[in-house]
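Progress against Task 2.4 (sequence-to-structure conversion) is shown through the following example record, which the project officer requested during the mid-term review.
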Amino acid sequence: MPGIADNGIEVEGLVRQFKNGPRAVDGISLQVKPGEIYGFLGPNGSGKTTFLRMLCGLLTPDGGSGTCLGYDILKEPRSIKRHVGYMTQKFSYYEDLSIRENLDFVARMYGIPDRKRAVADSLERLGLSARAKQLAGQLSGGWKQRLALAACMLHRPRLLLLDEPTAGVDPKARRDFWEEIHRLASEGLTVMITTHYMDEAERCHSIAILDLGTLVAKGSPESLADDIDAAVVVVDSARPRDISKFLEQQPFVHSTAQIGNSLRVMVDIGLEQPAQSTAAAITGAGLPLSGCEQVRPSLEDVFVAVTQARKAQRDQAA
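Structure tokens generated for the chain above:
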């Protein structure tokens, strides 16, 4: 019987086409295991929100198939909604109601028995008890985030869908939020979260990278770094901008990014001795060099590599 076993998420070839526009989601296939934190990484407009809305029954796919918590996403969206907590990008609770009043309203909407106890437990769990009477409109971004998460968790969902939940909040609030997410996952909750912050994506167990509605890479942060189709070299120099301009003209260089007085340079994966070859090119051009070494690719390097490869494919097809 659907929904008895928590099967996480399994979708195959999921498509969503908006009128008079390109496909917002173009044939995405993936699996999310129970208790996994799965990150959706991509720029604005890449299809992340559209995908989440299809999973929780707010949008109907135009193609493809799949299940969410064992329920068919095409035939059983009502059943999915009962077992999913969805946190939208925009704060969507009543600013002229207190934290407690907002949570009580959500509990009424779900028909939760013993609402008073459920709300009290939620306030305690998210550290909101001392602010329970404060109006939502008076909260900072981090406290609004806690209220939204508390509301999502009131009906004890088995899957949490979080759409860029930490946008606009301070670093401490972000860290506290992620500690809570990992605690929930350790208790068996499945979490799918969209973000364009690389450091947040690295906190996920698995990641999918989207580009213009297409899934271009997926796997753990470690496996994606191992499979990158480029080598990464860090160049130190007193003239990083001059070196960047020079390297960007070299055929073996994919991209450069300045970090302080250092450059992070992606070069051809097949280049023999990447650091030595890059250093030789720089000194051969008469530019000053303090150091040059090959380093392990970061998730940002992976993101740049796969999106650049997709752009090159589109340019060739045009």
